[in-house]
Design a protein that fits this description.
It holds the Pfam family NTP_transf_3. By secondary structure, the chain is an alpha/beta fold. It has helices at about 30-35, 70-75, 95-105, 130-135, 145-150, 170-175; strands spanning about 1-5, 25, 30, 40-45, 55-60, 85-90, 110-115, 120-130, 155-160. It is about 25% helix and about 25% strand. The protein has a 7-stranded mixed sheet with strand order 5-4-1-6-8-7-9, with helices on both faces. Strands 2-3 form a two-stranded antiparallel ribbon.
């Protein structure tokens, strides 16, 4: 079963604490675009609940603010039947259903497939074998770097099309979006 986990709980310190997933692009929240990219998959959004979006399940990392590995663990806990999982950031501006399909096809027998942009792996733009994710999560997930937890898994690097892996982390990114 294919499912999605969308991480939407960051503090956006570099942007003054705005709710990044609810920033709009063309009048739609970024989070809505990421949810659209997941099609009819069962989706868990990890972060505070936000109104006005398609029906999803909501979870919070333990402890709140515990970081992406703790958020991943919270999402996995609600998807025990999933065999393949898209792990996406809620502020991806160029992620589409085609992106997710491309990653699913590229993964093959590997543990995961990640977009690569400007020579860097985009850890929150990938598709993974659910069993590999579950096995990689440490007992103490809070404060652990995602690349440290997932970096030893077998990963297919998928070149991102221009803008496909773009997200909103800095004031410059926000200006680009607008």
């Amino acid at each position: 079963m294919f499912a999605g986990i969308v991480l939407a709980g960051g503090r956006a310190r570099r942007l003054g604490g705005v709710d990044k997933p609810m920033l709009t692009d063309g009048g739609r929240p970024l989070l809505a675009g990421v949810l659209d990219a997941l099609g009819d998959a069962d989706v868990v959004v990890v972060g505070p609940e936000r109104p006005g979006l398609r029906p999803v399940r909501w979870a919070r990392e333990d402890p709140p603010g515990g970081g992406p590995v703790a958020a991943l663990a919270a999402g996995l806990a609600l998807l025990p039947e999933a065999t393949e999982i898209a792990l996406l950031a809620a502020d991806l501006t160029g992620c589409t259903a085609s992106t997710v399909d491309k990653l699913r096809r590229a993964r093959g027998a590997a543990d995961g497939a990640l977009l690569v942009a400007d020579g860097r792996r985009q850890w929150l733009a990938g598709v993974w074998r659910a069993a590999a994710l579950r096995a990689a999560i440490p007992a103490e997930a809070a404060g652990t770097a995602l690349r440290r937890v997932l970096g030893d898994l077998s990963i297919v690097e998928v070149p991102a099309a221009p803008g496909e892996a773009a997200d909103v982390d800095t004031p410059e990114d926000l200006r680009r979006l607008r």
